[in-house]
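Hey, quick one: can you model this chain's 3D structure?
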Amino acid sequence: MWTPTHLINRLNACVNHSLKLSLQLSLKPSLKHSLNPSVNAALHRGSQQPLTGCVNRLRNAPLSLWQRALRLFLAASALSVLTACSTATIDDYAAEQPTLDLRTYFNGPVQAYGMFQDRSGQVIKRFEVAMTGTWQGNSGVLDELFSYSDGTTERRVWRLTQHPDGRVTGFADDVVGEATGAVRGNAMQWQYTLRLPVDGSVYEVSMDDWMYLLNDRIMINRTAMSKWGVHLGDVTLTFIKPAP
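Sure thing. Here's the predicted structure for all 244 residues.
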């Protein structure tokens, strides 16, 4: 469970990231010195109070124009933290059936249909994925070919390991480091950082990926995308295995 100290650390991290981003956007160098006193004072005064008190003090601090913009960013981050306190865990699905085994489901061809929605819920892009999985023991390769509604294509190759204790790890060329997660019952959750190209730049985006096996052929996948704890949008996918 998050405590006021955790929230303060999270908000401080957001402040540091925002300062770096502001400097990259060529804002005036004095911004760092004008921001920190009121923001840090608000965080300090709220450190011994409930989370709502901390956020309220931050919201009521005297702010300049740039500080007000940062305040909105921090408030959104705080809301994400508060919401995370009540989220489900993978262990909640341990007794659910049918049991998901990645080596069985992602073995051979699988077709998927999906869409990306921004944080307002608007559908931004639709896509299809032709997937082929091959396994040797607990190690597998999942080759994914994406075809988007705007005519573009993309390929991602996952190298997966399903461990005996239910853990799942994986690597892909556009993923930073290792993807980690677990399978319990009919569900899988894993998390990773994706390098996302946007208008000639590449952003590292956090992905919280959930899959739910409905029957032997159909699985639903929902992924929440975030940056610095701020929700950016969601990806929804339906996987369909061919009939035997």
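One thing worth noting: Strands lie at 108-118, 123-136, 139-148, 153-162, 167-171, 175-184, 187-198, 201-213, 218-227, 230-240.
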